[in-house]
Amino acid sequence: MGVTPLSALRTSGVGHMAVASVFFFLMSLMVKLCRDIPISQIVFFRGVVAMGLCLIQLKIAKVNPWGTHRKFLFLRGLFGTTALILFFTSLHLIPMATAVTIQYTSPIFTALLTTLFLGEVFYRGQYLFFGLSFAGVAIIQGFAGGDWLPVIVGVSAAFFAACAYTCIRKIQSLGGEHPLVIIFYFPLVTIPLISPKVALDWVSPSSQEWLYLIGVGIFVQIAQYFMTRAYQLGEGSVVSIAGYLGVVWAAIGGSVFFSENLSQSTVIGILFVLAGIVGNTLYRLKVERAARAPV
C-alpha cells in the first residue's frame, strides 16, 4: 500500500517544519494586529499563556520544572525575552516580511557565538554566505541612508535570539534538559521581568484584541510543538530550510491584511538574506557529510 501525502506529512520533519512556519506566521500576524497595545503587554500575555500551557504539560509529563542547569536556563529566558521584545517591536515598525527575514539572520550569530564560546567548528566558506545575508539587510534598508533604527532593532532581535540558542546548546553539552523545562524558563523569566513595565503602560484591550493576545501565546506554543517534532523526525540542517517558508506567509499576510507592498529592492534584499542563510546551511551540511564519509 502506497504512502499518502497526508501520512507522509505526519512522518516528515520537513512537513512538520512547514506547519510550524504557518503557526509562527499566525503569531506574527496577531502581534501586528495589536497595533494599539504596548509591546511589553503583548510579550507579557505571550508569557502568561506559555506559562499556563507549560505547567499543564509538565504536570502531565511528571517533569521537575526547575531543571539542573539553572544558570544557563535563566540566561536563556533572559536573552529570549529580550529577543522577543525587539522582534515584536520590529513587527510594529517595518513590513512583516522584512521583520521576519531579518529575524532569520539569527543562525549567523549563533554560528559565531557557538564558535567563540563553545568551541564549535566554523568553516571559512561560511563567511561568504554570511556576507551575502548582511548585504541583503543593507539592500533592504537602502544604501542611500534613511532610518536605520527599525533594521537595527530587527538585527538586535536576531542577535539575542542567537544568544538564547547558544545557551540551549551549552545546556545540551552539559547533559541537556527536558524540552519543556527549557520552554518553561522563558515565561518564568519574562513575567516578573516585564510586569512593572506592563503595570505602568497598561492599555485595556478590546474584546477583539484579547483574542489577538491569547492567539499570540497559543499559536507560538503550537508552532514550537511542530518545530520540536520536525527536528526529532528529520536532519536538523535540512529541516530548518522549510522554516524559511515563513517569509512567504509573511509577505502574503502583510499584503492582504496591511497593504504592505514590498519594493523591488526589498524583495532583492530578502532573496539575498535567504540565499545566504540557506546556502550556509547546505554548505555546512555538505562539509560535515564529507568529513564523516569513509576514506
Describe this structure in words.
80% of the residues lie in helices and 0% in strands. It has 295 residues and is mostly helical. The protein has one domain. Helix 5 runs parallel beside helix 13 (264-292) and helix 11 packs antiparallel against helix 13.
In whole angstroms, the N-to-C terminal distance is: 39 Å
The chain-level structural class is mainly alpha
- The total number of structural domains is 1
Report the radius of gyration as a whole number of Å: 19 Å
Strand content: under 5%
What overall form do the CA principal axes indicate?
globular
Query: What pattern of helices and strands is seen along the backbone?
Result: HHHHHHHHHHHHH
Separate helix tally? 13
Summarize the entry for a quick read:
The protein has 295 residues and is mainly alpha-helical.
List keywords for this structure.
13 helices, single chain, mainly alpha, 295 residues, 0% strand, globular
Furnish the topology, listing elements before pairings.
Blueprint: H1 5-10, H2 13-33, H3 39-61, H4 70-93, H5 96-103, H6 106-118, H7 126-141, H8 149-173, H9 179-201, H10 207-233, H11 236-242, H12 245-258, H13 264-292
Helix pairs in contact: 2-10, 2-11, 2-12, 3-4, 3-9, 3-10, 4-5, 4-8, 4-9, 5-12, 5-13, 6-8, 7-13, 11-13
